[in-house]
Amino acid sequence: MALSRFASSSRSGSLLKPLSSAISLRRPISTDTTPITLETSVPFTAHQCEAPSRTVQTTANELLTFFRDMALMRRMEIAADSLYKAKLIRGFCHLYDGQEAVAVGMEAALTKKDCIITAYRDHCTFMARGGTLLEVFAELMGRQAGCSRGKGGSMHFYKKDSNFYGGHGIVGAQVPLGCGLAFAQKYSKDEAVTFALYGDGAANQGQLFEALNISALWDLPAILVCENNHYGMGTAEWRAAKSPAYYKRGDYAPGLKVDGMDVLAVKQACTFAKEHALKNGPIILEMDTYRYHGHSMSDPGSTYRTRDEITGVRQERDPIERIRKLILSHDLATEKELKDIEKEVRKEVDDAIAQAKENPVPESSELFTNVYAKGLGVESFGADRKEVRATLP
Amino acid sequence: MAAIFQGVGAAATLSSSPSNSFVPKKFLTSPRRSFSVRKVPSYVVVRSDGSVNFDLNSKSRRAQQLVANAVATKADSSAASSSSNPGHELLLFEALREGLEEEMERDPRVCVMGEDVGHYGGSYKVTKDLAKKFGDLRVLDTPIAENSFTGMGIGAAMTGLRPVVEGMNMGFLLLAFNQISNNCGMLHYTSGGQFTIPIVIRGPGGVGRQLGAEHSQRLESYFQSIPGIQMVACSTPYNAKGLMKAAIRSENPVILFEHVLLYNLKERIPDEDYICNLEEAEMVRPGEHVTILTYSRMRYHVMQAAKTLVNKGYDPEVIDIRSLKPFDLYTIGNSVKKTHRVLIVEECMRTGGIGASLTAAITENFNDYLDAPIMCLSSQDVPTPYAGTLEEWTVVQPAQIVTAVEQLCR
Q: Required cofactors, per record (chain B) (predicted)?
């Protein structure tokens, strides 16, 4: 597209409008890559290191990609909410809406060689790492096309080829695993880093400090990211942590506090952290973020916080709204175009859900596959120990 | 193919006489069919000193023709081995170290993590000098943080490294139970097969010499129901080295149980590269009257009792089950079909121990072949006391084994 768009020019905006109505096949999303300089919402707070600058470079293309990705994630999570209420998704379902900026900003700062490992609130992180909507919905509904073949569920999304290591149900246990990933990266001289995500609730787990100690001792390229949404299920952070300055908890390890609702700040911080970790060892990032839903689908989310608080955050700090305002104020797209993106995204999600609903449940023989990596010829039995009797392949 | 065990002297020093031949080699590729030779009933009692005795029961009629076979095969194998591969003698912890060292040389992805494994050389010297040879990045001294370094080992295994995690004492691995159960055992399944965890978790356990309750734990029973892991217990230098190598090469997570009191066992092992099959049991002493299933240190108590039993005219078949998860029901089943009586001798606790699971497995599969209920001798359901006499009574002693066999064969 020969249109070159300048941030401050309104002429190009008007130039685009007639074209957009003329071209009905594709919506002209800006692919402009001229850099735009913006400032993050709040400055970074640093512990034991120099904070990165507030000024970030981005492009129209990138902002629109951010918008689309976050809108997709938001739509996906809302759809998962409805599916859960329709009893198509069972068990535990932890939704990430409100926190999308962390997943999207982090992905923008990394390559696929870097590893990400997170806890159970993993749907959007999985998507950011390259997962498809079908894999997400099929896994949530326990179907064959799911990323873990329907055997993992909401809390066990993995994508090995893009170095996404899950997806873990036990609070805090993924952090030592993440430090192990960093160890393997250092061992194999990969020049890549590992981002181990955890929540403010998990920040009080002993194994985090153990893992951080070992990572600092061995100079591992591990970045511990605390997604601080201020509530550990029903317990507010001030009731669970004597010192809720999670970025300072590393003591000897440097830390950075980031506004987790600002995707550009997240990206800046993650880029900074990656550089730092490759040279100096572990660093802690605290993402100040918020979740609109309760802890999981069985938690209404309003018994321990007021609805006013939730709507307040939604009005003032919502990550998608922030990007929308940025895009509109810089004339990178029109209101209508953004709405069209949202409609497109909604359709994609609906299509994926329809496709996932058609997908079959796993075969009963799948019960016994993947228990062991190599077949042992071991027998496994059903409850009656006679009827169902299979050899573990 | 009679297996000759090294005579067990006083309980204090479990050294062996090197002149006898070793347990026959088992190659990974050999199918289970190769053990069909054991199906031929042998009524020959081969004593520990190498002399052959006929069993005094009525079934000795057919012994004549089989003697030549048994002795000939044995002589052949031992003659062949002594002329071409004299082997070398070493202690069990050295055998473990040899296995570990060979695997580390063979595959650069193998690394060792544990407390004091590097500069100190390992609290039981299993990793002595490995840090000097392979460097600090491959033999890693960890702080005292079992939960996290086991987790780190698992995380590293997810990317393809092959860590060997050492628990200084098996009991300390209780702190890492979450990582072992949820992450190690289950990740292959919950990821739909995307990740394999080729980790080896090893360490000494079992009742030692007055080490106290917390340092005398047997964790086989706690780990046995975790789906997705394999458990093996070594008992001789030969199988220690073989199992260590096989465990490192395995794609599944393997827990290798060693015993504190067995580290100074001496045996002659082959020079060449060999591994022991992880899922196979070891026939220690073929017999006719009763099948005694055992593993780890209790193997020596059983063999000591076997000497007494043989003098009394019994012919026990002793099998070291080695593979605690999964059980080698093929070998065990063949034995049960032959002898029709089973005695399990283990160091695990009575309640929910390996013996309990084994009893259930045998009863379910071979109930028709049993002439008597399965007897299971296990440790008492008590924390191991410090006082020596009391400690002796928590574990199974040879005299109890003799009594049990007599009772079983009545």
A: thiamine diphosphate
pTM of structure: 0.80
> At CA A315, angle to CA A310 and CA A321, rounded to 5?
120
pLDDT at B14: 36
> Is pLDDT of B108 > 50?
yes
The three-state secondary structure class of A46 is: strand
Q: What is the pLDDT of residue A211?
A: 95
Name the 3-class secondary structure at B116: coil
Decide if pLDDT at A3 tops 90: no
Question: In the prediction, which pLDDT does A41 show?
Answer: 85
Per-residue pLDDT reduced to its tens digit, B267-321 = 999 999 999 999 999 999 999 999 999 999 999 999 999 999 999 999 999 999 9
Provide the greatest CA pair distance for chain A.
78
Contact between residue B110 and residue B153 where contact means Cβ atoms under 8 Å apart: no
Give the separation between CA B409 and CA B346, rounded to whole angstroms. 19
Chain B CB contacts of A166 below 8 Å:
187, 190-191
Q: Quick check: B137 and B93 in contact, CB under 8 A?
A: no
At B243, the pLDDT band (50, 70, 90 cuts) reads: very high
Q: What is the mean pLDDT of residues A350-358?
A: 96
Strand order, beta sheet including A255-259: A45-47, A255-259, A283-288, A222-228, A194-199, A115-117
Q: List helix spans (H) across chain A.
A: 11-22, 60-85, 100-109, 123-128, 133-140, 174-187, 206-218, 237-240, 263-280, 307-317, 319-329, 335-358
pLDDT of A367 strictly over 50: yes
A289's CB contacts (< 8 A; 6+ apart) are A98, A99, A101, A102, A227, A228, A229, A260, A261
* Residues in A touching B232 (Cβ below 8 Å): none
Nearest chain A CA: its distance from B319 CA (Å): 20
CA distance B338 to A251: 66
User: Distance between CA B385 and CA B300 in Å, rounded?
Assistant: 22
Structure confidence by residue, pLDDT tens digits, A195-234: 999 999 999 999 999 999 999 999 999 999 999 999 988 8
Contacts of A282 (CB under 8 A, 6+ apart): A179, A182, A212, A215, A216, A220, A221, A222, A223, A224, A250, A253
Nearest chain B residue (CA) to A187: B137
DSSP string, B15-83: ---TTS--PPP--TT--GGGGGGGGS---EEEPTTS-EEE--SGGGGGHHHHHHHHHHHHHHHHHHHHH
pLDDT tens-digit profile of A79-91? 999 999 999 999 9
Q: What does the mean pLDDT of chain A come to?
A: 88
Angle between helices A174-187 and A206-218 (to 10 degrees): 10
Structure tokens at A31: 């692919």
Mutate to test the interface with A, among B134, B147, B188, B190 (most CBs of A within 10 A): B190
Does the annotation mark B215 as catalytic?
A: yes
Neighbours of A241 (CB within 10 A): 18
The predicted pLDDT at position A361 comes to: 92
CA-based nearest residue in chain B for residue A155: B190
In angstroms, rounded to a whole number, what is the distance separating the alpha carbons of residues A382 and A262?
51
Paired with A288 in beta bridges are: A228, A259
Instruction: Write out the two tokens for B22.
Output: 């070793």
CA dihedral defined by A118, A124, A129, A133, rounded to 10 degrees? 140
- Dig out the tokens for B197 from the structure: 């965890």
- A183, A215, A220: which to substitute to probe chain B, counting the most B Cβ within 10 Å? A183
Token reading at B389:
């006499």
User: Which of A188, A207, A371 shows the shortest C-beta gap to B148?
Assistant: A207
For B194, counting Cβ atoms within 10 Å of its Cβ (0-12 exposed, 13-18 middle, 19+ buried), the class is buried
Q: What is the pLDDT of residues B254-264, one digit of tens each?
A: 999 999 999 99
Q: Residue A253 to residues A48, A53, A68, A195, A222: CA-CA distances in angstroms? A: 7, 20, 35, 15, 11
